[in-house]
Each structure stands twice: as C-alpha cells, then as structure tokens.
C-alpha cells in the first residue's frame, strides 16, 4: 500500500489522478465541473457570511449592553448552534415545499426555468443560506469582540479627543479590527470548501461534496483520493493567502 500510494502521488504531481472506477473516466474530468459548482456555492455562502457577520458584529459592538447588542448576540449564538442538516431540511420544507418560493434542489429547473442565470440564482439561495449559517455566527462573534475591544480602547479615545466625528472614529476602529475579521473569514472560507458535503447532498447540488459522497458510497477510491487532494490543497492555499494578507494589513505581525 505505501508503494501504491507513492506511485499515485507521483502521478498526481503531473496532473494524472487516475481513472474513476464507477465512472470509467479520468478523475480530473469528473472533478473539474464539480469544483466549479462548489466554488459557486461557496462564493455565494461566503458573501452572506461576510455581509451578515460584519453587520451583526458591528451592530452588537455599537450597543453591547442594549437590546440591539443582546439581539445580535442571540442571533449569532443561534446561527452557530443550529445543525446544518436540520436547517437545510427546514428550509426545504418551508420555502420549497410549502411556500414554493425557491426550488428544492439542483441547479436548473427541468420545466419553465429557462436554464438562465436567474434560474441558477433561485436554486442557489437555499443551499447558500444553509451553508452560511454556522460560519456567519462565528464571524459575527469574533468581529464583534475585536471591534468592541478597539472601540473601548485608547485609539478610540484619542480620536474622539482630537475632535474627529463618529464616522471617522468608526472607520479607524473597523480598520484596526479588520485583521481579526480577515483571519476568521479565511478560516470560514476554508470550512465552507470542505464542509458543504451535507448541503450539496441534501440540495442535490452537483459539487465536489456531492461527488465525494457518491464516490464513497460506490467505493471509488481514485475519485475519493483526487477529491480529498483538491480539498487539502485548497485549504492550505487559503490559509497561506490569509496569513499573507494579514501581514500586509497589519505590519505588527511581520517577522
């Protein structure tokens, strides 16, 4: 087995990931469209994570002891605590089955959807929301803590003493809290890339997670190895980019 693994690793370094046992096609041909679909879903979910995390975190940091701060904290905790698969099933039951506002799965409707970008966006809403809930709550809590610490620190007092307005003080404090936001957002992006298996399976989204799930069920070892390799490389690459960007934004962390 070690020799077989080293042989496969040597071929993978040249772009040859073998042939799928179940599909009888090169693994790279199966992975390419699946990776594209996963990147689309991850990008939509990550946009929700950033917007929701920043809004909830900033609102909570602005009024920590007030009703708004408590509400934002409760929403963040609820987002983190909600099981992803249960939320996905709830979204399907309410918005797809009962209200019929969004499709229950897939990427395009077989009838009446037209197959355009609007149809794709409708199919993207529910899985993106389900995938974004947990990372959104974590991002909001970390950004809230970082921003609240800066707002209560000497920087904010010094800026107010210089006569700067509320907007200028907030802009400077948000800039100082941005390294913490960048770090947690990068980690959540990596989590989204490797943690959408349940979402893609429940919503029949033809991405990398769904492909790996089917490959495991079929015991398709070459396809599983190729998919895991792609996820691992993406995870390491994202962390390297986050560390580089962190050093660029905050000179204090440069060694």
Summarize this structure briefly.
This protein has 255 residues and is mostly helical.
Task: Walk me through the structure.
This protein is mostly helical. It has a single domain, classed as MetI-like fold (Orthogonal Bundle). The radius of gyration is 22 Å and the shape is globular. The mean pLDDT is 83.
- Stretches where pLDDT falls below 50 for ≥5 residues? none
Compressed to H and E, one letter per element, the order equals: HHHHHHHHHH
Which percent bin holds the helix content?
over 70%
Helix segment tally? 10
Radius of gyration: 22 Å
Give the CATH class: Mainly Alpha
**Class computed from helices, strands and strand pairing:** mainly alpha
**What is the second-level CATH architecture?**
Orthogonal Bundle
Number of domains: 1
State the separation between the terminal residues, measured CA to CA: 41 Å
Shape: globular
Largest sheet: none
Count of beta strands: 0
Beta-strand content: under 5%
Kindly report the CATH topology.
Answer: MetI-like fold
Indicate the mean pLDDT.
83
Oligomer: single chain
Layout of SSEs?
Blueprint: H1 2-13, H2 27-62, H3 67-81, H4 84-98, H5 117-151, H6 154-161, H7 166-194, H8 197-202, H9 208-217, H10 221-249
Helix pairs in contact: 2-3, 2-5, 2-7, 2-9, 2-10, 3-5, 4-5, 5-7, 6-7, 7-10, 9-10
């Amino acid at each position: 087995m070690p020799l077989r693994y080293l042989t496969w690793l040597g071929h993978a370094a040249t772009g040859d990931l073998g042939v799928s046992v179940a599909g009888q096609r090169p693994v790279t041909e199966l992975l390419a469209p699946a990776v594209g679909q996963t990147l689309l879903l991850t990008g939509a979910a990550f946009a929700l994570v950033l917007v929701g995390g920043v809004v909830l975190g900033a609102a909570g940091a602005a009024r920590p002891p007030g009703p708004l701060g408590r509400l934002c904290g409760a929403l963040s905790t609820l987002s983190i605590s909600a099981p992803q698969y249960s939320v996905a099933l709830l979204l399907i039951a309410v918005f797809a089955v009962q209200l019929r506002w969004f499709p229950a799965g897939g990427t395009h409707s077989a009838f009446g959807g037209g197959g355009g970008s609007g149809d794709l966006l409708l199919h993207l809403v529910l899985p993106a929301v389900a995938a974004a809930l947990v990372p959104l709550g974590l991002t909001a809590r970390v950004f809230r803590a970082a921003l609240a610490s800066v707002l209560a620190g000497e920087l904010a007092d010094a800026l107010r003493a210089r006569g700067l307005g509320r907007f200028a003080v907030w802009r400077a404090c948000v800039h100082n809290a941005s390294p913490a936001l960048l770090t947690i957002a990068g980690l959540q992006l990596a989590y989204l890339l490797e943690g959408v298996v349940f979402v893609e399976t429940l919503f029949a989204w033809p991405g990398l997670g769904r492909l790996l799930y089917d490959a495991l069920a079929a015991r398709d070892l070459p396809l599983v190895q190729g998919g895991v390799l792609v996820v691992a490389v993406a995870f390491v690459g994202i962390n390297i980019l986050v560390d580089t960007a962190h050093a660029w934004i905050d000179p204090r962390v440069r060694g």
